[in-house]
User: What shape does this take?
Amino acid sequence: MFKKQEKMAKKTISQLDVKGKRVLVRVDFNVPLDGAGKITDDRRIVSALPTIENIIKRGGKAVLMSHLGRPKSGPEAKFSLQPAAAHLGVLLKKNVKLAPDCVGPAAEAMVAQMADGDVVVLENTRFHKGEEKNDPAFAAQLAKLGDLYCNDAFGTAHRQHASTYGVAEILGSGKRVIGFLIEKELKFLGDALDHPNRPFIAILGGAKVSDKIAVIENLLRKADTILIGGAMAYTFFLAQGKQIGKSLAERDKVNLAADLLAKGEGKLVLPMDTVIASEISDTAVTAVVEGKIPDDKEGLDIGPKTIADYKNRIRSARTVVWNGPMGVFEKKPFQAGTRAVAESLAEITGHGATTIIGGGDSAAAIEQFGLAAKVSHVSTGGGASLEFMEGRGFPCIDILDTV
Assistant: This one.
């Protein structure tokens, strides 16, 4: 776990004198784009604003680094950060320039011309293979563009890349801090896992048990109850000897699921009933079963009895961490379970409970239902929040300065 961070809090950007300094900020502008290159969800950019604004209002020069997508071999126009830079300019109400590259003479010249309070976005760091390899030469080129380093990209804080680790290593102690977004993520997730108000309930969904083995094992030591939903439930059902029809399951992980059920006896709660259909569509004909799922049908959401049970359990909780939807919430016939969880979390938040959404599909769901503002915290890091919940340390955060 993050014992190091519990004992020694990380320095934040507010504790550095940034006036006149070039501050290399690792942000997470890996935002979804539509076919026309328009941003469809700007939450990650909005989440970076407090850190960026703090730097420029105190006379610093904000030099922003990010990746976007998965370019394969060098620059690809569809993965340019141009839409993110343009949108950031609108949000900040000031001119934000995009450098043609993240390293090299053109980027260096643009940064050299910055005045205090300016913002420059460097082009996609993953246009260079040295980024994901944490190549020392590439990290050194990035480090030339900054006097100080700030990591505010929780979504990539579990990846030891040049822009998340190598630059911090080069600039050295006294010059490397976290931003306000990472500070918030560490506080909410850290407090929930290490000092929860009880009862503490974890809700886990999604497709694969294998993706969440370490999470379940860690949470069995910490949570009072773990509610299971999504396709991962069907692997557990197989472990119980139940027939699951065409339902998505990891048949090679049945023994593992059985072990987790044995370890989690009394804590691990499975659905009592299931919404089934023969197809995944907005017009699918559904039915509810409590036992065997017919061979030509698949489970696609938790059923009404399970919804009632889970809502009742959530109502008593003082801390809830949720990662993974209860069903195929993108399709109307299968969104009731996920919606019910989202609404229940919003309700208890209003009564003083702490509710944390662990990024990824759960974050997408709570946004879709218009309830993101009614829970305590929506994480910007899907994979990162999952690894945090496993209890792993993050070298990219460990390397940063402590108070």
Residues 43-57 form the longest helix (15 residues). The first strand starts at residue 22 and ends at 26. Residues 1-7 have pLDDT under 50 and may be disordered. The chain has two domains: 6-182, 196-390.
